[in-house]
């Protein structure tokens, strides 16, 4: 969910089926153009989309379907108000990061090198958390490359390590910044600047939530 609804920013309720269908439709392009080997889900909005996408993008190894691993990062976006009060804003705080011990440190010189890494989130709103995630991943990649002593091997791994972003919804609005050209970008649905009410944020009757989708504005 992004900002609260106003007369100028109406609410659009989304069902699990809406999300599943959008991701399924986007998966074909992602597989053809990027073929990720590692998902990094931004919690909590990226968890369910990453899990759905993993089913759509299973890799075929020796005739057997294999799941792509998912790692999770936790980020909080807030703005300090000078006291104890905080609100959603512009500062990103890291609450959880990658577990490198499960990424094959010995095999991949730290776990990220040689991977095609797809960062997954529910929505690209201001882009602040996405830019933070990419920046931190690039920093981790450079640290791991620095530990590779053989220059040819280091440059090979640098070339093979790729980053991309997938969001279910991309809001067509001014962003906090521009992504680097070497970061591929995929969105399932481009939308106006709407208040998107995701089903996993529903704290009441999910069937009532789905029923109210009939009131969604047309766009």
From TrEMBL:
Gene Ontology BP terms: GMP salvage; hypoxanthine metabolic process; IMP salvage; XMP salvage
Keywords (alphabetical) are:
Glycosyltransferase, Transferase
Q: Which GO terms describe its molecular function?
A: hypoxanthine phosphoribosyltransferase activity
- Stated name of the protein: Transferase
The cellular component terms of Gene Ontology attached to this UniProt record, alphabetical and capped at eight, are: cytoplasm
Superkingdom field: Eukaryota
InterPro entries, per this entry?
A: PRTase-like, PRTase_dom
Does Glycosyltransferase show up as a keyword for this record? yes
């Amino acid at each position: 969910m992004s900002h609260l609804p106003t007369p100028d920013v109406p609410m659009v309720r989304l069902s699990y089926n809406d999300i599943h269908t959008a991701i399924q439709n986007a998966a074909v392009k992602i597989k053809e153009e990027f073929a990720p080997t590692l998902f990094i889900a931004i919690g909590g909005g990226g968890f369910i989309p990453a899990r759905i996408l993993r089913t759509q993008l299973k890799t075929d190894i020796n005739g057997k379907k294999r799941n792509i691993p998912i790692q999770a990062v936790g980020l909080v976006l807030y703005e300090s108000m000078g006291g104890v009060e905080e609100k959603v804003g512009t500062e990103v705080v890291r609450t959880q990061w990658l577990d490198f011990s499960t990424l094959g440190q010995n095999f991949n010189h730290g776990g990220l090198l040689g991977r095609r890494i797809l960062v997954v989130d529910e929505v690209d709103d201001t882009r602040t958390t996405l830019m933070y995630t990419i920046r931190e991943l690039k920093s981790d990649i450079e640290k791991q490359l620095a530990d590779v002593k053989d220059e040819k091997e280091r440059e090979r791994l640098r070339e093979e390590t790729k980053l991309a972003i997938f969001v279910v919804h991309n809001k067509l609005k001014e962003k906090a910044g521009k992504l680097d050209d070497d970061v591929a970008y995929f969105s399932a649905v481009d939308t106006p600047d709407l208040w998107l009410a995701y089903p996993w944020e529903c704290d009441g009757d999910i069937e009532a939530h789905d029923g109210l989708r009939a009131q969604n504005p047309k766009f």
